[in-house]
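<instruction>
Derive structure tokens from the sequence
<data>
Labelled lines for chain and fold:
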Amino acid sequence: MNVVLFDLDDTLLDYSGDAARCWSEACATVAAPAGVDADALRAAIRDVGTLFWSDPERHRLERTDMMGAWRKIVEGALDRCGGLRDGLAARVAADFADRRRATWSLFPDALPALERLRARGIALGLVTNGDAGMQREKIVRWDLARFFDVVVIEGEFGCGKPDARVYRHALETLGAHPRDAWMVGDHLVWDVLGAKQVGVSAAWLDRSRQGLPADAPVVPDRIFGSLADLTTLE
């Protein structure tokens, strides 16, 4: 093994954990004073958001502009609640975004894992989907660029995982052959299936330790509950 590629959100960074609480607080802080029932709006945001992100093509198109996506979700929810009015959706979305940023944190096992791999002389790459500005913000905030020989962000590169072009670009930049590389991530399609389709071995990070779903679209080469387990990769 000469190369390890990493996903960012929910692999190195705790990204999703407090989203529900942040929506609830944004609704109570911004929408309620404007005369909108905060509980009803929160429930509508949950339903609209689930529908919004369930369409794979819309997910692909919208995730590179997260502020715009969150605003659209709030607009749809306010429309259901009869509270759609000028500027309110944008204010709720902005409040939510600020709260989300405050809750993000690196997982405790992230930096030690990166440091151990670098000490072994292994080349590292970061391959992440999403909004270019938001992903760069995270990289700068935790000074992650110092660990990586290549960083591929969907919003900058023009396409995202599981597109094979993303993986091929990272490998070509590193001068690496797929057989010498591993991909580590929490998403079975984007991180595991995407990597395996170009011949890269894939380790699925199952932080919840619930095990591989019965209907999993792919079988990972390895399954880890923690990044500390990466010491067993060869």
